[in-house]
Design a protein that fits this description.
heterodimer, A: mainly alpha, Ferritin, B: alpha/beta, N-terminal domain of TfIIb, Rossmann fold, Dimethylsulfoxide Reductase, domain 2, 4 domains, 7-stranded mixed sheet, 6-stranded mixed sheet, about 30% helix
Chain lengths: ~160, ~800
């Protein structure tokens, strides 16, 4: 008996969590417009992966919710408003670094999960599963690179200027 | 009166320039020609009333700075004053023709409200002072901040309208002297996507095509490019081909029924997609090329990487899907694809309809992809023009005043940084290159959060031209910010400054600049600047000396004091780089036509088209950029690029379509886009002060489609209130052929000639009261064509 359902379940969970993390960073940094918009754009990738995982899970007798977990919108509004009010303070940019670090960590976890699934699919010669991993995993890597690049871009200004 | 003589090259006729009202007929009379022929000359001229050509003391050579076309001009001087202009017949760009903005715009030089003395803020008011006091204040505050907060507290925001020599000097001061990474030009608003798209596809900035491709093309595709109003003279070149015996077919992509779109309806296809869907449209066109076998596989195999990824990406982008998402008839998409796919000599041009729209770089790159997969580069007629919006934007990019390293050096290649340090005789560590240069909108964010405390703005007007003006005004008005504005008028931005430095302008200083097809022009000083105004170059050099900026041997960092010396220094900086200027000199540029770069010992007359025979500047050790992720904007790491493109081929980059970030709703049912009119340039600082141009378009208006107006009972001339969540604008209604559901506002109108001065007194007039803060993640160009808006009839606003 393979452990594919377990791997799918774990990925489904971690992708959902990554999507939520990206939406959270988007809300918390509304005054950093690029973070706000891009985080939402690439949260869609994780949400799409969640749907794809739920679809393929059926072939493995596993039921996963195809609807990505939702961020309560009221809380999102509060976060967005909070950032608009704090946008004039340089100190809050430290929070941005911390939040990007969290995205990077989550995305790295998801990436490893896809790695595990791809290896499993190859061993089982499950081409459909392998094809899914090959399609989704590059987007996870792009999410991770985004977080890395934003840290690289912002850290000097955050750390050096008073 | 200038005679209606026959000019130029045998078969040519020229018009009597003053016989045609160029406000009513901005493109003037036709001089038809056929494919492969030389475009006939037509010399346009306008002299001040009462001045005859015989009265002119001298004609002084220059080129246009009121648009990006780079038309060669002679300035007429009489008694030490500018009294008119004439197109330069010998110039390769315009063959004598002039844009109406050039015919009349020079009058702004004489305006009574020119800045003639420096101003400093005392007790809240701007008061006149002397240069020493003003410059000591500027240099003093810079020094203070450098000591207390370091170079990251200093930012520079410049223009696309200064001269090459000035940008290069500013870049040296900022990067080599002060050591800040925060430098950008307003080219970020107009041409950043052109540069980024070229970097993505060819590893390097540099316009592949030439204006002369119009003389050869059998199909011309204009993507979001209202050339008729933005590059007037270039459009007359197309109009003259259209009147010839073998006119090219046109494809126009634009949600407005522009003069270009009208011509395309007659001579080809007009596609009017829903704003924000350009990538969807481009992908569907590319997919049609693939499906019909209109691909030069041999070229692609030999000269490009990334073809398979594009093919994979296009799987979902059928014409039917695009027809639905873009709301464009499927048959029109097929017809357009057929024209593009079967063209033998395809010329494509791209401008703000792509650059300032959602997914800007991704869409512009797909135009490059068309030329790569069709193998249509580097041959007559097979031109690709990623256009500029401003006259000297190319120099902002080349010289590093947009933050990039000079002469297309790569900030993430240590060898390039070391080489630049050698040219500048400084320690490489002095040049900030730990990350990509800080783009304008991010600089504004750093001013907002207080980490940038000094902003030096030259020759640009962010208080009208940036998105979401209420935010911008509040950022620029902060007490903790020291704002320096160097300009020729007391612009909206200058009114917020702590120090205002009066500058000389075109005709009052000497320098060079380069247009969108790499043509370098010399612009000579014709008259003295008013009062105590000084050239931007002199001001920058004064600033450097007051700061005591030195090279590593203790000699002054800026080693030149005249424009020509600066140009000679720049030539050395470009040696061996793609934009090689070493074969040029002021003497060579004097008297004849402008000359295209690269111009060096090997190519003494310049190179007309880049990338002939599929040779690119994309090799990992030579290229300017490794590119970025088109969705996330993350820079591609050097080792990734080396693996992807070891042999320096063209890079085919696929892009997925993403929905726009602000969608229409019940509350905000219209899509708002902004743009230009032929009669004005930017924030009207000059064109608003030329009587003919001012009268031609005196007031802001809003364009609405006939069906939207009918649905709401609006009439032509009604006053509307247009609102978004960010602000409100009052404008009179013009019913036009704009797409249903779309509102168009011209972006030129601000407040300098209104009671509010720098802000709305009552109702907004600047389109940017309404636009949203969002930018393309790859090019960092702000998006001005992506807001959801509401419009109502003003109380008592019915005409």
């Amino acid at each position: 008996m393979s452990k594919v359902p377990m791997a799918l379940e774990e990925l489904h969970r971690s992708e959902n969590q990554l999507a939520a993390e990206l939406l959270r960073i988007s809300d918390r940094h509304k005054a950093d417009h690029e973070v706000h918009h891009v985080a939402r754009d690439i949260a869609r990738w994780s949400q799409e992966h969640v749907r794809e995982l739920a679809r393929i899970a059926r072939d493995h007798d596993l039921t996963l919710d195809p609807e990505p977990a939702h961020d309560p919108s009221l809380l999102a509004k509060v976060r967005q408003k909070g950032d608009e009010l704090l946008g004039r303070h340089h100190e809050t940019s430290l929070l941005l670094l911390a939040d990007l670090r969290q995205v990077h960590k989550e995305a790295a976890g998801v990436s490893l999960d896809w790695e595990v699934l791809a290896q499993t699919a190859q061993a089982l010669k499950d081409t459909e599963l392998l094809e899914l991993a090959e399609r989704c995993h590059p987007e996870t890597l792009r999410q991770m690179r985004w977080a890395n690049a934003k840290v690289k871009e912002s850290s000097a200004q955050v750390m050096v200027t008073p | 009166m200038f005679a209606a003589a026959v000019h130029g090259y045998g078969s040519t006729m020229a018009t009597s320039p003053d016989a045609v009202d160029r406000i009513a007929e901005p493109w003037g009379t036709r001089t038809p020609y056929d494919a492969g022929e030389r475009w006939p000359a037509r010399v346009d001229q306008h002299l001040q009333d009462g001045v005859a050509p015989g009265d002119v003391d001298r004609w002084v050579q220059t080129a246009s700075i009121l648009h990006s076309n780079g038309d060669g001009i002679d300035i007429a001087v009489k008694d030490g004053r500018i009294v008119g202009v004439r197109g330069r017949e010998v110039d390769r760009v315009n063959h004598g023709r002039l844009d109406p903005k050039d015919l009349y715009g020079w009058q702004a030089n004489h305006s009574a409200d020119r800045l003639t003395r420096p101003l400093v803020r005392r007790d809240g008011e701007l008061v006149e002072t002397d240069w020493d006091t003003a410059m000591d204040a500027v240099a003093g505050r810079t020094r203070e901040l450098l000591d207390e907060h370091g170079p990251s507290s200093i930012g520079f925001y410049t223009s696309g309208q200064l001269f090459l020599e000035e940008y290069y000097t500013l870049g040296l001061i900022g990067h080599g002297g002060i050591g800040t990474n925060h430098m950008d030009g307003n080219t970020r608003l107009c041409t950043a996507t052109a540069a980024e798209a070229l970097k993505e596809s060819f590893g390097c900035d540099g316009q592949p095509g030439s204006y002369t491709d119009i003389d050869h093309a059998d199909v011309i595709a204009l993507y979001g490019h209202n050339m008729a109003e933005t590059q007037v003279v270039l459009w007359t070149r197309i109009l003259d081909r259209l009147e010839g015996s073998d006119p090219p077919a046109l494809v126009c992509v634009d949600p407005r029924l522009t003069p270009v779109a009208r011509a395309a309806r007659e001579h080809g296809v007009h596609l009017a997609p829903r704003p924000g869907t350009n990538v969807m449209l481009m992908n569907a066109l590319l997919r049609e090329l693939f499906d019909n076998g209109w691909v030069d596989q041999e070229y692609v195999d030999a000269h490009a990487v990334g073809f398979d990824e594009l093919e994979k990406q296009l799987a979902d982008y059928t014409v039917e899907r695009a027809a639905e998402v873009c709301d464009v008839p499927a048959d029109d998409l097929r017809r357009a694809a057929r024209l593009i796919g079967t063209a033998e000599r395809l010329l494509s041009t791209v401008l703000q309809g792509f650059y300032q729209s959602h997914q800007a770089t991704a869409a512009a790159v797909q135009v490059n992809n068309i030329h790569i997969v069709r193998g249509m580069l580097g041959r007559p007629g097979c031109g690709l023009l990623q256009m500029n919006g401003q006259p000297t934007a190319e120099n902002t990019r080349e010289c590093g005043a947009d933050g990039d390293l000079p002469a297309f050096r790569n900030w993430s290649n240590d060898d390039h940084v070391n080489d630049l340090a050698r040219v500048w005789n400084i320690d490489p560590m002095q040049i900030p290159h730990y990350t990509a240069p800080t783009h304008l909108m991010q600089m504004m964010r750093y001013v907002e959060d207080g980490s940038i405390r000094f902003l030096y703005v030259s020759c640009t007007n962010p208080a009208v031209s940036l998105p979401e003006l209420r935010r911008i005004r509040s950022i620029l008005s902060q007490e903790r910010l020291f704002l320096v504005v160097q300009d020729i008028f007391l612009s909206e931005t200058a009114q917020l400054a702590d120090v205002v430095l009066p500058a000389a302008t075109w005709g009052e200083k000497t320098g060079t600049f380069t247009n969108a097809d790499r043509t370098v022009h010399l612009s000579e000083k014709a008259v003295e600047p008013p009062g105590e105004a000084r050239s931007d170059l002199d001001i920058f050099i004064d600033y450097a000396h007051r700061l005591g900026l030195k090279d590593k041997d203790g000699a002054p960092l800026v080693k030149w004091s005249t424009p020509e010396e600066a140009f000679e220094a720049w030539k050395e900086c470009t040696r061996g780089r793609p934009c090689d200027y070493t074969g040029l000199s002021y003497d060579k540029l004097r008297g004849g036509s402008g000359v295209q770069w690269p111009c060096n010992d090997e190519n003494p007359d310049g190179i007309e088209r880049l990338y002939a025979d599929g040779r690119f500047w994309a090799a990992p050790d030579y290229c300017e950029s490794y590119g970025r992720d088109l969705v996330t904007g993350a820079p591609v790491e050097p080792q990734e690029y080396k693996a992807l493109n070891p042999d320096g081929k063209a890079v085919i980059k696929a892009a997925e379509y993403l929905p726009p970030h602000e969608l229409v709703s019940e509350e905000h049912p219209f899509q708002l886009i902004t743009g230009r009119t032929i009669y004005h340039f930017h924030t009207r600082t000059k064109t608003g002060r030329a009587p003919e141009l001012r009268a031609a378009a005196p007031e802001v208006w809003v364009e609405v489609s006939e069906s939207d107006a009918a649905d709401r009972g609006w009439q032509e001339g009604d006053e509307l209130r247009i609102t978004t969540s960010r602000g409100e604008v009052a404008a009179r209604l013009r019913i036009t052929g704009v797409r249903r559901g779309v509102l168009f506002l011209p972006f030129h109108y601000g407040y300098w000639d209104e009671p509010g001065g720098h802000e709305p007194a009552e109702h907004g007039r600047a389109a940017n009261e309404l636009t949203m803060t969002d930018w393309d993640p790859a090019s960092k160009q702000p998006l001005f064509k992506t807001a959801a808006a509401h419009a109502v009839l003003a109380e008592g606003g019915a005409r």
